[in-house]
Amino acid sequence: MTTPPATTPGLDAPTWPEEFAARYRAAGYWRGETFGAVLRARAAAHPDRTALVDPAPDRRTWTYRELDEAADRMAAGFAARGITKGDRVVVQLPNVGEFLVVVFALFRIGALPVYALPAHRDTEIAYFCAFTEAVAYVVPDRHAGFDHRALASRIKERTPTLRHVFVAGEPGEHTALAEVPCAPAGPLDGPEPHELAFLQLSGGTTGVPKLIPRTHDDYGYSLWGSNEICGVDAETRFLVALPAAHNFPMSSPGWLGVLYAGGTVVLCPRPDPATAFPLIAQERITMTGLVPPLALVWTEAGPDSEHDLSSLELVLVGGAKFSAAAARRLEPALGCRLMQVFGMAEGLVNYTRRDDAPETVVTTQGLPISPDDEIRVVDDADEDVPDGAFGHLLTRGPYTIRGYWRAPQHNARAFTADGFYRTGDIVRRTPTGHLVVEGRAKDQINRGGEKVAPEEIENIVLGHPSVHDVSVVAVADAYLGERTLAYVILRAGAEPLKPVAVKRHVRQAGVADYKVPDLVEFVDAFPQTGVGKVSKNGLRSAAAPTEQH
Ligand code: OOB
């Protein structure tokens, strides 16, 4: 028997060498399933069980059979409009039922969802559509006060490959998503398990975000591996509190993991306690995932809540460092178990375990999912540091990518010659193998789980006519963990600016709101390093966490 290559040639990213792929298959990690086939199998096994609940504004539910059929009909409609295997489709939907129907339809075709976040605006969406040569873009009509149809019209105008805009809700000049489904004409070709399932976004450290190619096989392992660790089964009722497009609420264990296990996914339109707590009570939610700032808010609100939170068994917290002090307070406040999760869309995910000592759960970020996750902690020269010492985390394994999509130059820096991903995180390993995240070497700001690439924002600020130079750095923040601070040097003779003018300039460039600098300070010069380059570390230590209006 011949084994297929790990990913189809021509799909534009480095992949696992055949010896690794064969090993991961032989070990049973890669199960040879596609997400479309998994949904079909669950629908056959338990057609009438509830798969999905979209509570807002009127409660809508889908059984497994209904979700399966909706995906088939949507896939047939997309196919009838010429969307075929390998095509890229930018999906920018909030936490609504249509999100899951659309992505399962695309999985069935073998077209690749490109997961945009609801917060993304012209700059990001135009880039995703152009870079992936997307043929379609799926949006809500309005969300959080913003008209996505107008954004889509602007994007369509400037993106020659974009043939379709599908709108969940009132379509305006575009096509209503509700009009797409039709009776399946016959079986679709569909993807092979070793082929790409979707493109996920990286947090990014460069001027433009990188795209992360994940296969059905490798991502599938991160799902069922997470399910085993978190105890996800058919009884699980999971609340998707974070944006469904993010890797954490998708796969750790997330909505895709919960559907894999035959459980019920409940979409939460907003993650604040006023929205989420009544849903927990009404839907008897057993599990959810939160970023640290939300976990703090929930911890504050839990004890006085009038809502019955007693169904909640497990809250996963990750995306950014959760302080031990905050972690200690969560379990008593919410009456459930805490699990820390330290993961990345590129692959590696670590969890504390259900049988870990309480102190381990609050002070570490967990152990990798797989015995075959290879972990190296190295110094600046890529030499392994002794156990317990701080170093750069490098990783390679059965669900960690070997390269970004269409990014050969960046890949040469982001991966070692033997295929380890340079995570950019500084960690140490405890004697039990648990990882503790101590900091970060990459030029990225982690704003409560939302990642900001300083270079991207610096490039925009530099476009302001009065700005001579800029450096964007992180400052400590009690709530978000970190906020963004832009140090700005004005041009000689330029009119003085107010901080708000710099913020407005960034916002008007059309980027996600969370990327607008929280603070702006005007300086005459940046601290220099020995070689005359701007010292970001110097700027970070100069920055005091001050308030600004
Ligand atoms: C998750 O994925 P990304 O791709 O948005 O961000 C990954 C980066 C990590 O490299 C690390 O710098 C940071 O986010 N991070 C954490 C952390 N979890 C993620 N830093 C400290 N403590 C943690 N617990 O953020 C993500 C993906 C899957 C599951 C969970 C989070």
Automatic annotation (TrEMBL):
Q: Could you name the domain of life of the organism this protein comes from?
A: Bacteria
Subcellular location per UniProt equals: Membrane
Please list the residue ranges annotated as the AMP-dependent synthetase/ligase domain. 40-405
Name the Pfam families on file: AMP-binding, AMP-binding_C
* Domain AMP-binding enzyme C-terminal: residue ranges: 456-533
Q: What is this protein called?
A: Long-chain-fatty-acid--CoA ligase
Give the matching InterPro entries: AMP-bd_C (IPR025110), AMP-bd_C_sf (IPR045851), AMP-binding_CS (IPR020845), AMP-dep_synth/lig_dom (IPR000873), ATP-dep_AMP-bd_enzyme (IPR050237), DHB_AMP_lig (IPR011963)
Cellular component (GO) terms are: membrane
Record's keyword terms, sorted? ATP-binding, Ligase, Membrane, Nucleotide-binding, Nucleotidyltransferase, Transferase
| GO MF entries | 2,3-dihydroxybenzoate--[aryl-carrier protein] ligase; ATP binding; long-chain fatty acid-CoA ligase activity; nucleotidyltransferase activity
What processes does the entry annotate via GO biological process terms? siderophore biosynthetic process
Membrane topology term: Peripheral membrane protein
- Tell me its EC number(s), please: 6.2.1.3
Which ranges of the sequence are coiled-coil?
none
Q: Which biological pathway?
A: Siderophore biosynthesis; Lipid metabolism; fatty acid beta-oxidation
Query: Where this protein primarily resides, as one coarse class?
Result: membrane
